[in-house]
């Protein structure tokens, strides 16, 4: 008669047979380690699959949180408009035209970018997990898309260091979407509100400065 314990030991749980999903930082590292000269946007789309919305939002927004050469925020912000607009419209799958999919950056630059982002991502990923899913259901997620579209437009404004707050907000939203974490989404909403308040304060200061200059010029003339 066969030993029951030996039969039970051969049973494999369905959960054990499923590989754990890779974290965002792990997928980035895999992309950076590819033996190719360039990494295209199409490569990123294929690597992240159903998480492409959040992945591309994070990939193009997060570098803007770091000090970058002048003009880079506009370069990185342009694809954000395309991604966030589709998220706002509720598209189930991110679509990219061929000319955007084929746009690429050198693997060396991608590796440098990954090396700068990975330590930050590793620390954040320790706290990220699926929770408060109601904040990421279809309708709230479309509202997030609308907010991110507005924040992406702000990235184009030539305001010194003004691109960092909206970039941080988009990054928080993106992490919430990728990891299905409602807490990260709440952080994104707080950061978005802060970004708008900072923009309003800076805009008021700029307008006041221009008015003061014009008044002084009028007196001088």
From TrEMBL:
Lineage top rank: taxon: Bacteria
Source organism (scientific name): Microvirga lotononidis
Protein name: Putative ABC-type transport system, permease component
Transmembrane segments: 74-94, 132-155, 161-178, 190-214
Swiss-Prot/TrEMBL keywords: Membrane, Transmembrane, Transmembrane helix
Cross-referenced InterPro entries: ExoD (IPR010331)
């Amino acid at each position: 008669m066969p030993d029951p314990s030996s039969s039970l030991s051969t049973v494999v749980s369905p959960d054990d047979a499923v590989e754990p999903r890779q974290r965002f930082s792990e997928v980035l590292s895999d992309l950076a380690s590819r033996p190719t000269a360039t990494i295209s946007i199409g490569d990123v789309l294929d690597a992240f699959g159903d998480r492409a919305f959040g992945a591309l939002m994070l990939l193009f927004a997060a570098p803007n949180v770091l000090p970058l050469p002048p003009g880079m925020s506009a370069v990185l912000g342009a694809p954000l408009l395309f991604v966030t607009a589709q998220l706002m419209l509720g598209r189930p799958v991110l679509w990219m035209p061929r000319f955007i999919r084929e746009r690429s950056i050198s693997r060396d630059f991608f590796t440098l970018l990954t090396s700068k982002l990975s330590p930050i991502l590793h620390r954040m990923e320790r706290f990220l997990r699926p929770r408060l899913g109601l904040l990421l259901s279809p309708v709230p997620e479309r509202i997030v898309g609308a907010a991110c579209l507005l924040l992406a437009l702000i990235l184009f404004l030539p305001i010194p260091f003004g691109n960092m707050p909206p970039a941080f907000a988009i990054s928080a939203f993106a992490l919430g979407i990728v990891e299905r974490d409602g807490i990260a989404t709440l952080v994104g909403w707080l950061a978005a509100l802060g970004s708008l308040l900072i923009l309003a304060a800076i805009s008021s200061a700029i307008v006041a400065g221009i008015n003061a200059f014009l008044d002084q010029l009028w007196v001088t003339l």
